[in-house]
Amino acid sequence: MRDETKCLHAGYRPQNAEPRVMPIVQSITYVYDSTEEVAAVFDDPMKSLIYSRFGNPTVMAVERKIADLEGGVGALCTTSGQAATMMSILNICSAGDSIISTPEIYGGSINLLSFTLKKLGIECIYVSQDANDEEFHAAFRPNTKAVFGETLANPALTVLDIERFARIAHEHHVPLIVDNTFATPILCKPFEFGADIVVHSTSKYMDGHALQVGGVIVDSGNFDWNSGNFLDITSPDESYHGISYTETYGKSAYIIKARMQLMRDFGVYPAAHSAFLLNIGLETLAVRMKQYCENAIQVARYLESSDCVESIIYPGLESSPFYGLAQKYLKGASGVISFVLKGGKENAIRFMNALQLASNEVHVADIRTCVLHPASETHRQLTDGQLQAAGIHPGMIRLSVGLENVDDIIEDLNIGFNAVNRMA
Ligand SMILES: Cc1ncc(COP(=O)(O)O)c(C=O)c1O
């Protein structure tokens, strides 16, 4: 199946006389005929379902769909994108370990990596995407367990050179974890370029309708955990009858460990109803992504031609320093555009307040056009240095181009520019 077809049919194929639409199985638990059967499922929870803290038929149908779209061996849904990022790292890192990340990532991920994981004893070393191979190699320590980056960074919109990052990570026998939220598997499939684990905030394009917060981790099944570096996956888990995930589950070791061990303990599993809503978003993902990209390139060209705009970041524009990487890795540059207005923060706020169609909200990648001022909203906890490293100018506006008629979106931006010009 191709992506458009997978969006509609992967994960759930009804058999004779079964419901056409994936049903919402809203049940906490599952009934068995005997104690022996329950015991057998405890011995191997992948055999069937025990409890909806770590497995539910509706959620698992969505997991199969996303795994199929990304080309992975398995997926695990979480209650938020933050939970997915956290679990993707904690699944292989313990106190005393370190990870390497690019600083061009979502502000919430910077907080998680720099502060909360640090409290748990996991250090994050930042290496800019501009770093050469030598500088990158120099950041590795004997305790480094993973490299992390975003395909299309929020909001810096830098494009990760996935092949280079994967190659260097693999030379040090650690996996590359890629946050593929903005690209979605429709615009980029990081596994095809060597990434090992993918995470998403499904709250963005996958849901698409601003209905519910969610996340997902996807395992490529390609990483070799047997370097001696990942004893937590390869050696017996005393919290699970001494199971070795690699010996028992082979290529699916990472994602099954995340479900059986971490999801069991953290319990950040979504409800069936949330997965049902997410699936409705996923059904149109391929069609929507094409239209977001078509609208956004027109809006980006319009912004580029405006006298009010100091700079614009959209890797779909030929003038972007990331155009080459975007051509290599992306089938479109998504609907998100970042730009800086002349006159800095004051004009950015004046412009945003004047808009009538685009809403000012803490969200992105919705079907409706929306705007946000990262320096005073999503990234306000970052220091000036962190803002600069994350590629965020104080006057930067993040515009998430929606699926309205593009002429209406451009007319709305014009209203904003007029408000700025009136004050000039
Ligand atoms: C790229 C990226 N990753 C992760 C997250 C966190 O996701 P959530 O808000 O679903 O927890 C976000 C949220 O904006 C994001 O943009």
TrEMBL record:
Residue list for modification N6-(pyridoxal phosphate)lysine: 204
Domain of life: Bacteria
GO MF annotation, one: pyridoxal phosphate binding
Pfam family, one: Cys_Met_Meta_PP
Reported cofactor(s): pyridoxal 5'-phosphate
Entry keyword Repeat: no
UniProt KW keywords: Pyridoxal phosphate, Transferase
InterPro entries: Cys/Met-Metab_PyrdxlP-dep_enz, OAc-hSer/O-AcSer_sulfhydrylase, PyrdxlP-dep_Trfase, PyrdxlP-dep_Trfase_major, PyrdxlP-dep_Trfase_small
GO cellular component, one term: cytoplasm
Any one biological process term the GO annotation gives: cysteine biosynthetic process from serine
Keyword Ligase in record: no
Family: Belongs to the trans-sulfuration enzymes family.
Name of the protein this chain belongs to: PLP-dependent transferase
